[in-house]
Amino acid sequence: MNRRLSHRGPDDEGSFVDHENGVGFAMRRLSIIDLEQGKQPLSNEDESLWIVCNGEIYNSPELRANLLARGHRLKTNNSDVEVILHLYEDKGTDLLRDLNGMFAFVLYDQRKGLLFGARDRIGIKPLYYAHIGGKFALSSELKSLLLLPWIRKDIDFTSLDHYLSLQFIPAPDSIFLDIKKLPAGHFFTYDVEKKRLASQPYWDLNVTRIETNTSVAEWRDILRHKLKDAVKRWTLSDVPIACSLSGGLDSSSLVGLLAESGERDIRTFSLGFMGDDEQGCNELPLAKKVSEKWGTIHHEIVLDSKRVLDDLGKMIWHLDEPYGGGLPSWYIYEMIGKDFKVCLTGTGGDELFSNYGKYRIYERRSWVRRLRTLREAADHKTGREIKDGFRFPHGHFYHRYFSDAAKEDILLSGRRSSVGTEAYLEHVWRKSGSTDPRNAVAYVDFKLQLPEEFLFVTDRFSMAHSVEARVPFLDHELVELVFRMPPDIRTGWRHPKSFFKHMIKDLLPEELTHAPKKGFILPLSIWTRKELRPLIEQLLSPPYVSTQGIFSPKIISKIVNAHLSGQKDFTQQVWTLLMFQLWYERYCENRP
Fold first, then answer.
1. Complete DSSP assignment for 91-106
2. What was the pLDDT predicted at 279?
């Protein structure tokens, strides 16, 4: 199991086994802090506590100083993981309130016969687990757990149902029935003797605590300083750090803040695209302007988008679960991983300050009326035509690749979820406690798309190349402060990110302040009719689908034939299905 995760930690490995109580830890290490003494698993002085931790605790220097002042004896020079052990001695599970960082850890209290573990507030680092028949196992990646003979590969059809609508799978479920995901901001305890597992949240995003006595200018000043502090914290490292520079506002502002703080020899890495038809998405010129402004040592990779097809199999293996979203970031981490172990990325900036303007649809009319309108439109399709069921009419705050109504036709009887994705989304929305669409949409983003799609793919693709991707915008102190802002200040109507852009405009070259947001879109319409056509005709053919026993062969054939013939544009639907089938071949059929 440990060897299967060697890409996450190629520098070192370690293990600890308590044979008497049947508890074992193994760890692959990417050495970043306290290179010599920070080996894991790590214990306290009398070896009554053991820990393995993936990630970094960025306020560990302050925590360490406080522990020493209270008389704790620490074995390492500056290991960030060691502070968790000694905080546990003082505070038990309440220690989580003290941690600032990204982490998934498991601690073994040998005296109490207790396992205690947690995942960071936002969900930057993953933690999968299985608890079946008195057996309990955890891992950073699902693929490691599949080596255990008592874990089955039975599909969780609720997860598949959500995947078909969202292109990702929300926690706490995974694609397999026997394996779960600890949700972001949760911790668990496991009684080793009684074999009893319990989990609960320790943090939630509060979008209802609004401060109204602060001016816009004051907010800009406060948040600029808080972002600068977060960047400083999240650069804690004993090895050099690189920056992923897209040419957008978020990553560019991080580079500017690093340079402004006096950081020298900043290394920046940017990805661009070769095809003439892709230049509208190409941000290399803007990234170069940022590099020139701050004098960074800049690196560019120009990608032929067809190269993605060659690496699709490797991506699917490292992703663990079916995923139908963006893939090009693989190449940024591949390039960075040749010389660096750590990089900063701008992930999270959009969710904090704009939500891509997804709230606008609900500001035109109340969200309750909008949901009712969408539901009625889906329920009253004439003739239940597939073409009307792929997306909710008029849009939604998530792009709906297959609607709940369409999935009734696509999935065989017995393969549908009892809880549709629409009801699930509405449930998460209601949990926000806010009647303001800008806050409610932000809450849903932080609970779903951010941890389960964007941070999911960032973790898998960066760690596939032994790179730790850091996301300063998701420093929880910054996040909590941003959502105390009135929503109409935090985000705008016509220009959703206007507040943030004004806050950091001095860090940007002039060209970037007026540039529209870009994002590379793979030429899926062409691929699915040309390069990927043989795979589609094989894996979505009636014989294959009939043998598989998940989808309706008749409906799938109708979708595929209409798309391949050019009669209909079902690009996203065919791509979503194909990515699941490719995952299924690799993980369920063991066929690379």
1. HGGGGGGG--EEEEEE
2. 46
Residue 165, C-beta contacts closer than 8 angstroms, at least 6 positions apart: 398, 400, 401, 402, 403, 404, 407, 421
Radius of gyration of the chain (CA): 24
Beta bridge partners of 470: 344
Domain 3-201 has CATH 3.60.20.10: yes
The answer, yes or no, to whether residue 515 has pLDDT greater than 80, is no
User: pTM of the prediction?
Assistant: 0.92
HSE (side-chain half, CA atoms, 13 Å) at 229: 14
**Residue ranges of E strands in 450-533:** 468-470
Average pLDDT of the chain is 90
DSSP string, 355-373: GGGTTHHHHHS-HHHHHHH
Reported as a pLDDT band with limits 50, 70 and 90, residue 388 is very low
Q: What is the pLDDT of residues 8-18, one digit of tens each?
A: 999 999 999 99
Q: How far apart are CA 380 and CA 377, in angstroms?
A: 5
Residues of the chain with CATH 3.40.50.620: 217-355+448-513
Domain with CATH 3.60.20.10 in the chain: 3-201
pLDDT category at 591 given cuts 50, 70, 90 is confident
For residues 390-415, average pLDDT: 70
The Cα 149–Cα 406 span in angstroms is 36
Domain 217-355+448-513 CATH class label: alpha beta
Q: Where are the beta strands (DSSP E) in 134-177?
A: 135-139
